[in-house]
């Protein structure tokens, strides 16, 4: 992919997802190399109201109309999981670069089709795992890969929220490919891959599903990376909001109290080695802004993203393996 001869890219967004309103659209507006110029929604007035903080924004009543706009360079797709592949492929066919929310697709096969479309039309496709751009995660991974806590033996990662009072939440809808694993557990899967640099050799798992054809409301899995290296991960929709990561090496540990959804607060990593605890603090940053700036830099210069699509494929394969090990039919469409 060749770079573009301009100072910033012109963004479009498909839909009015909360993640877009609260985080990504403001991040684009604050970025040094991007501008939000258009949004598409089946309810244009709702979109105009929700994105009123963006001056001069063009509002389209149809996703395809936005993709057909020659004044847009890239699109951000925060649509329900079941729509990622369809609209990422259509965006690529329209010559638009694509930043797609996690998980990249519902299945490995869908993701492969998305990647093929991006390659065929010479556009950038990137999965939006914003937490990987936070300095606390980048510092922790640097320590790990430098061997500062020895050979990694265990990664514990948890992410749960409580949406029991939100029956219409799209995360609970099987037809939209919802579920705790694909919405929250995917962060833990992604982190394990970032630490070990590979997909697990085998998987054991359980999921909590309350009715036939329903989504998983909770998930717990053991990922076996061989040679005594494991990942213990869990996610859920029926508990207190919690997230945590502990990475255990044979020489020490790293603990990250708020590893994934960290906003409006400083980052902290606790390092334990030789019986001594050290605290590393990181200033408050907008990891969404860092993500969109990295994406735009790649579009403008032609450089490769820090995260490869092969990692995205392996993460999706792990998600499929977890569901299979738990006896949960996936996808439920």
Automatic annotation (TrEMBL):
One of the Pfam families matching this protein, by short name: GFO_IDH_MocA_C3
Coiled-coil features, chain-numbered ranges: none
Domain Gfo/Idh/MocA-like oxidoreductase N-terminal: 9-128
Domain named GFO/IDH/MocA-like oxidoreductase: residues: 140-254
Entry keyword set: Oxidoreductase
Molecular function GO labels: nucleotide binding; oxidoreductase activity
Top-level taxon in the UniProt lineage: Bacteria
Protein family according to the UniProt entry: Belongs to the Gfo/Idh/MocA family.
Protein name in the entry: Putative dehydrogenase
Organism this protein belongs to: Thermosporothrix hazakensis
Lineage: Bacteria, Bacillati, Chloroflexota, Ktedonobacteria, Ktedonobacterales
